[in-house]
Amino acid sequence: MALYRAASSRAAVRCGGLEVHSKGHVARVDLTVAPVENDPDGLTETQLYLVILAEAPAPPAPIPGVVEEGADTDSRIEALKQELRAKEEFLQTTNEELETSNEELKSSNEEMQSVNEELQSTNEELETSKEELQSVNEELATVNAELQSKVLDLSRSNNDMNNLLAGTGIGTVFVDHQQRILRFTPAVTRIINLILSDVGRPVNHLLSNLVGYDRLEADVESVLDTLVPKEVEVRARAGEWYSMRIIPYRTLDNVIEGAVICFVDITRAVQAREALRESERHFRQVAEALPQPAWICLPDGNCDYLNPKWLEFTGVPEAKQIGFGWLQQIHPEDRGGLVSAWKIAAAAGSGSDLEFRLHHHSGEFRPFRAHITAMRDAGGEIVKWFGLNLEASAPEQAGPGKAGAK
Known about the structure:
Elements: H1 2-9, E1 13-22, E2 25-35, E3 49-55, H2 71-168, E4 171-175, E5 181-184, E6 210-211, H3 216-226, E7 230-236, E8 241-250, E9 256-265, H4 267-289, E10 294-297, E11 303-306, H5 308-314, H6 318-321, H7 332-348, E12 352-359, E13 365-376, E14 382-391, H8 399-402
Antiparallel strand pairs: 1-2, 2-3, 4-5, 4-9, 6-7, 7-8, 8-9, 10-11, 10-14, 12-13, 13-14
């Protein structure tokens, strides 16, 4: 009780004349409980109390032979009063503690009620959130199903694209802005030594099988800078010819994300072109060796070749006769009939003989009979006409009526 009173009043409390049983006898002590001041250094935060037990002065001893009447009764009454007073103080202290506890319990009850209301409100919010989450979960399930469907479509499209690229036989390499390889088709491995682990490596780190061409990196950089496609014919070490085309890689949003390098096998076309050139070279050699004037025209009459004998006979430079300039060397009276006969022969698609007078470098017009032959491609279409002029033996005037097809 003294400790409780000292804590409540923040002052020292003294209780005197207490009996303490110690080592087999009863000692009278004075009890003092005093609060200790807080440590100025702040080392102790808990409030401490000093409990002092001091020996109380002994009561006056009874005088021998003198009997004090009522002394025992008074002493007992005093002890009972002291005990009653102590119990009253204990009871008062207990009541105060009980009141304090009741107030604390009341406050705690109010707090619990407030917390209960908050928990109820939170529970309602959680129920609402649960419903919202359930709705979101259903939406996510729908979106997930749509995404799975799109993933399947994308996978199918990717497989179709891979099979398409592999089936075309066109070697293709996809690179990014840093010219790092993103993807390639199997056909390109015959041109550039590529394996799957090369994905992510720059193009210039790889060894190509191209002969006489080392500008791949520069050409790709040029296409990425200018966005202008570039096409080059290249040859592989094995002898195949390819048409290499470099174009910008554009997304559906027209964003440039790199470049595409395509290799199309044109070996047969190159061989056919070389064979055509060789054949044309032989044909020109034969035509130039002919002692008669000869020429080659397109189906519309546009002349693209005159042999030296024609140029020598007319004495006019080739540049002035190529195209439709050769008609100026035909006698004016024969031009109309010659053009009409040419159109008839072109429509018929068969060889014909044409008669006309050709201007000689001496200034006179000499009669000629031209035998023309259709030159056809592999499909049977007429691509050019070849004409061989034979000078007529008789110096007769052909005139416009005699120029025609026979």
